């Protein structure tokens, strides 16, 4: 009788692609766990904090695809796609592509979390035991009057607690779209790659994908998608209320405004194959310095509050970023790690084939 020995399960460590460079990196968690405190809230305007609006322009550097969840016939979209049977669509309004404000907020939040002492949000139940001590997701318990959250939850909110920032939908400045062919992508498999966990079996860090000089187009073998092409621009506005100077400065660092740590955002789908790189420009900042300004803005049709632009804008941005560094809200080690992943421009090539 012949005994058949079971073959060992193939993991990423013993697979033929084990030595292939990955298009991502894990940003380590700060040595000190998140410090939690009561958030400022939006119930009233606070004179010792900053409130106002930031005008943003996002420029696409590699093709970007923000899925609407709808698949349409190519002939229904435009003449240029009439020969494509089915195409995954993006959101649009009046033939102009949109990036939902919630999508932008999620991208900015994840980056803000990585460079501050913040909790690990939305970890699936399967991996709850792998979350390091002190990094569990912030939980609000109003019955016990437990309303203390980490640095990121202070700004972006937590379950049952409203955050201090709001992103409006970003609208493309031009009509139309380009068509791309995205390779098939597969879900992450943490159990098959030990690098996701440290020697104690705990989560090793936060995962971020590298920028690349271009995105991979799979041609006829790819998935047709409605996308924003290179150099498409989007306009949006970020409203903030009751932020400290350090919090606003950290937000501006995340948006790529720190001259010493230039970064771009990764937005939408296809991140592993180089898609979604966007450079952010702050076009203006409108600060509301008192309760009276809030009142006048909404009680007077002729109210035209001054905005910071050009030189005054640049001076304010760099000043507020210095505060974020000096008050140690930004963790320098994690910022430098993230900078190596999200720095722009880059000469990094996108992955070819299976990695």
Please tell me about this protein's structure.
A hairpin with a 2-residue loop joins β5 and β6. The protein starts with 23 loop residues before the first strand and ends in a 13-residue tail after the last helix. The chain has helices at 74-77, 101-114, 151-156, 245-254, 291-299, 310-326, 332-342; strands at residues 24-28, 50-60, 67-73, 86-90, 92-93, 96-99, 157-158, 161-162, 165-167, 170-172, 178-182, 205-209, 223-227, 233-243, 265-266, 277-288. The protein is globular, with a radius of gyration of 22 Å. It contains 7 helices and 16 strands.
List key phrases describing it:
alpha+beta; globular
pLDDT averaged residue by residue? 90
What's the number of domains? 1
Percent helix range: 10-25%
How many helices does DSSP assign?
7
Shape: globular
Major β-sheet, in short? 8 strands, antiparallel
Please identify the structural class as seen in this structure. Answer: alpha+beta
Low-confidence stretches: 1-10
Question: Strand share of the residues?
Answer: 15-25%
Q: Secondary-structure map with pairings?
A:
Blueprint: E1 24-28, E2 50-60, E3 67-73, H1 74-77, E4 86-90, E5 92-93, E6 96-99, H2 101-114, H3 151-156, E7 157-158, E8 161-162, E9 165-167, E10 170-172, E11 178-182, E12 205-209, E13 223-227, E14 233-243, H4 245-254, E15 265-266, E16 277-288, H5 291-299, H6 310-326, H7 332-342
Antiparallel strand pairs: 1-12, 2-14, 2-16, 3-4, 5-6, 6-10, 7-8, 9-14, 10-14, 11-13, 15-16
Helix pairs in contact: 4-6
């Amino acid at each position: 009788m012949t005994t058949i020995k079971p073959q060992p399960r193939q993991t990423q460590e013993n697979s033929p692609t084990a030595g292939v460079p990955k298009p991502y990196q894990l940003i380590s968690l700060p040595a000190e766990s998140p410090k939690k405190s009561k958030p400022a809230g939006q119930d009233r305007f606070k004179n010792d904090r900053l409130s106002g609006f930031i005008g943003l322009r996002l420029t696409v550097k590699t093709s970007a695809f923000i899925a609407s969840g709808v698949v349409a016939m190519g002939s229904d979209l435009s003449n240029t796609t009439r020969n494509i049977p089915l195409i995954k669509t993006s959101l649009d309004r009046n033939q102009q592509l949109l990036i939902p404000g919630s999508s932008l907020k999620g991208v900015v939040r994840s980056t803000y979390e990585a460079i501050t002492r913040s909790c690990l949000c939305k970890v699936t139940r399967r991996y709850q035991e792998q979350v390091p001590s002190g990094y569990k997701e912030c939980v609000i318990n109003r019955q016990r009057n437990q309303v203390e959250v980490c640095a990121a939850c202070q700004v972006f909110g937590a379950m049952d607690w409203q955050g201090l920032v709001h992103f409006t939908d970003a609208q493309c400045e031009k009509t139309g779209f380009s068509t791309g062919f995205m390779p098939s992508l597969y879900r992450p498999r943490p159990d098959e790659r030990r690098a996701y966990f440290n020697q104690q079996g705990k989560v090793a860090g936060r995962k971020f994908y590298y920028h690349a000089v271009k995105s991979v187009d799979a041609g006829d073998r790819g998935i047709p998608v409605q996308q924003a092409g290179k150099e498409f621009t989007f306009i949006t506005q970020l409203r903030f209320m009751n932020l400290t100077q350090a919090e606003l400065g950290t937000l501006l660092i995340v948006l790529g405004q720190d001259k010493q740590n230039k970064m771009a955002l990764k937005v939408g789908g296809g991140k592993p194959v180089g898609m979604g790189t966007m450079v952010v420009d702050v076009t203006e900042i409108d600060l509301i310095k008192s309760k009276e300004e809030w009142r006048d803005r909404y009680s007077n049709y002729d109210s035209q509050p001054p905005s910071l632009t050009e030189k005054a804008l640049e001076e304010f941005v760099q000043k507020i970023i210095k505060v974020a560094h000096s008050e140690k809200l930004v963790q320098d080690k994690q910022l430098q790690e993230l900078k190596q992943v999200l720095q722009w421009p880059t000469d990094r090539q996108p992955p070819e084939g299976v990695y």
